[in-house]
Input
Amino acid sequence: MSHDLLTQVSLLVRIRDARDAAAWRQFVEIYAPLIYGFLRKHGLQDADAADVAQDVLRTVAQSIGRWNYDRRQGTFRGWLLSVVHSRLTDYHRRQQRHHAAVHAAADCVHCADDGRSSAEWDRDYERQLFHAAAGQVRGDFSDSSWQAFWLAAVDGKAAQEIAATLNITPAAVYLAKARVMARIRQQLELLTGEPL
Amino acid sequence: MPDEAKLRGLLDGTLPEADQAEVLALVESNRDWQQALDRLAAGAQTWQAAAEHLHEPPLAAGAALRSAIAGVQMPTIARDQQPVDGSAKLDFLAPADDPRYLGRFGEYLVEKVIGRGGFGIVLQAFDPPLRRIVAVKVLAPHLASNAAACRRFDRESKAAAAVIHDHVITIHSVGDQPLPHLVMQFVAGQSLQEKLDKSGPLGITEVLRIGVQTAAGLAAAHKQGQVHRDIKPANILLENGVERVKITDFGLARAADDASMTQSGIVAGTPQYMSPEQARGDTVDARSDLFSLGSVLYAMCAGHPPFRATTTMGVLKRVCDEPPRPIREVNPEVPDWMAGIIDKLMAKRPEDRFSSAAEVSELLGHCLSHVQQPSALPLPQVGPVCRTGPANSTASAPQVPHPAEGEWSCRCLTCGYVAPAHKWGIVRIGAAARGKRSLLWCPLCRWLRWMSIERYSAKSLPPRRIPMSEEFSRLPSASSNGAGLVLFVLILLVGIPLTLLIAAGLGYFLMSSGSPPVAHTLGIPSGNTGALIVESRDSRLKVVIHRVKTPSGEHVVGDLLGPDWQRSQYITVPPGEYHARVTTGDVPVREDVFHVAEGGPPTTYAVASGGTLRIVSDAPGALLMTLNDLEPTNLTWTGAADKSFVIPEGLVHVDLRREDASGRYAILTDNYFDIVAGQETLLRVHEKDVELAPGGVAFDAIVAAQRRVQDAVEADYAVGKVTKNEFVAAQLALARARLDWATKESRHALAISIRQEIVALAEENERLVRLQHEAGRVPAQAIHEAHVATLKEQVELNRAIGDLKESGKLPADFELPPLKGGNPTPVDPSVEKAESPPE
Output
């Protein structure tokens, strides 16, 4: 399939096309650490978290074609979280068979901290997406533009100071900062199919 | 004031060089300009989020995670599609003694994987007895278990092996052990696709050289009765060095198609190069390959395929309905005559194309000679090019493939068109739809119709055609019980005429019949008037309506003709007998006689076209119309007056009610219906992703989203994946979205009623949580939280009413309207059972 056709389509739409292996890899790159991190925070050991993350990804692969997420509400992240919860519950159930006693405690922990974990989830979700988007557009800019953006937008340095450090004009700093940000924003929209 | 247009230009690099210095100076010196530039780049929230998130390092994947996820591919939807990277399963290979090889396939030593497609995998292998390198195409293991696919693969491979030509890849042998496969000549080189990806548009000599050879290869195959069906740049191999063309994959598209559609419902193949007849699912012949060849020539000249869209269905629609962008607009260097040849090859109607690949090859050969020696050889004459506009013309009438006895088939309940289910145009029928009725696209009516999906039996109902007049003759005898029943059907597809018929009193939907579907003439009889509706996209169409048997003799009532066709036109006529004659380019297409009865039941009908809904009624009285659940509009008719409404493009959903009559609602999308099959998928409707432009269409998006959620939930419920809680949560989210919209649009009464809905949903949620607690699945804490959430919503509702009354936006005596029904969202009661997640 031709490339320019695909780049118009958001990642979440692209991964529905099973032939688009690149999209799936990209998806896994972004979301797997997020899911894994979440599971670790919920007390799973390294290997278990990796296994459950694998289950989650498998579920996503199986269901994404059927899930029409609501773009306006950004339900995808919510949906993904619900998949994570559901696989986590499965995991606890499996554990329960082995250690009946442990289960109740584990399940309750998982139920009770939903509110907090969803805020955490949202934060990590956005963090992953920002990094992915930034990584993907990095190559479109020169080093000095990129540094100007980073120093200005991320580190919050003043334009004059950056201009002096990078030996460019302050106007170039403002421009680089805005241009990079605009590209990142577009890339985010392309990744999620929605404004963040 | 900062000049936003200039700043935007600066941002995206379109600002003229001359203005740049000036704008940059302003940005540098002026805080307002800096802020405006930042604002254009991203919203304040995004800036803040970027700073916060990018400041932190990204989450990292550890080694355990890496190895765990490496194996997760897209299993279900992709059952027949292997991943493209090298890590795919090759577990069908036997181990090879020599470690330099990946494994052994039969007697062949596999060196590497060189390609993959819908049907399986292509291996580069060494053939020890003959000491040569071959390419082995292996049918994917999951397809190998599908008897039909195997037979098809075997048959097509053997047929392809019979074609021996310099420009067709040579097939050495065909076998079925250990998996069905075919062994063919190995071509070292690249595909035309790769070449185009690398170098972009090709020069005219190059285009002609590849075109001549491809056409010659096709001609040889066509002579053997072989149709390729999947001519595209990826299937045209260019040998290293000489770049000699070798066409590969003859007939295999069909084998893959057979298998994939029963499994996944994904349209196999690359749609960009498909012919319109293929895209529609009609039978194809050699001329289909000519269309694809035209598309390939186009791609060589343009650097990209002629038809592009963001979705497969979008591409298919364009292939069927739209002319490609003129090639000379894309690449002005393409000579006129080349554009002419491409146009003729890409004619929508097969008979407008060249007659054979041999002819094309010869013609392109002459052109090539001319290009190489312009002075010595004149340019050959290209026959008259018929540039067809919209595709939908007389000759493209779909052929009716007869289903086999007992095969799943679709029968159009309107026109009787029957076809095997899998032949249903671009629509695939899922297992879940079997034995049911579905709204599907009827190729004969060229309309969405209710179709019965049933096992075909020649005895039950053979394909039939109902003459229009016969249908009409039955009408006057129909009882006029005037119960005020309102029926309506509103169905639309983008680019396809849309008709909304609403008959009040006694409803009749008279859809057209017969073939070819050049025009539908629909009549609606009524008390005082009848309506004749004509739909077509053929601009040559002319319709003349005579009234027959009037006291003064025959006279012309109406005369509808192109090129002002709006795709759908109607005229109203008084009771009487009429004769409608439809011609296209002076060729008679059809004739209908119809009768408009006097004193029949009153009629209301509407025609929607190009964003306008026209409603005509001769049943006086008030009619309540609601579009997309917005505020109801009261319509009052007197006599045959008609009214027009501008309807939003996209998703439209119309409710009409008269007095005590209730009606079903219809939801309509602007795109396509695609029924996806699959083991786990219920009947589903996909819409195009709705664009969220500022203002205007937001509500459409919400309605669409609501529907999607309902669909998704239904589907997920069917496989035990979604609980009632999740459904309620989704409904809540959507109701909030609608609330946002209503608040923004200052539709206060609507906002209040949505808030009421939200309260009801919160109560529903609370009830579910209680049930779950009883079942021991959630702690008591959850009930408490759910209850607090409900209370919060109630407080919000009361506060909102209070505020609005205080500010005068609601009358002081405003009272909450009664909530429609008990449950705000009618849910299949069986969903209730889904509360427990599946084990």
